[in-house]
Amino acid sequence: MKKLISKLIFNEKGISTVEVIVLVILLAGAASLVGYAMTAGSRGLAGKTIQVIENADPTK
Q: What secondary structure letter does DSSP report for 11?
């Protein structure tokens, strides 16, 4: 991937608008997947923590 990007940038013709759009779409998609994974993970951890607190028996 790094070689492809450097090949596109240092090409004699330079990088075209279509290539810029494709790279931006790829980066945005990757960022949204990471963001979704982070929020889903934090929701799962928060739910488990709340469940542990609710199930705790203070009389023991």
A: S
The SS3 of residue 13 is coil
CA angle, residues 2, 5, 8, in degrees to nearest 5: 150
* Distance separating alpha carbons of residues 8 and 30, to the nearest angstrom: 20
Number of helices (H), then strands (E), belonging to the chain: the values are 2, 0
Q: What is the pLDDT of residues 11-48, one digit of tens each?
A: 666 667 888 888 899 999 999 999 998 888 888 888 88
pTM, 2 dp: 0.52
CA torsion sign for 49, 53, 57, 58 is: positive
Place of tokens 């934090």: 42
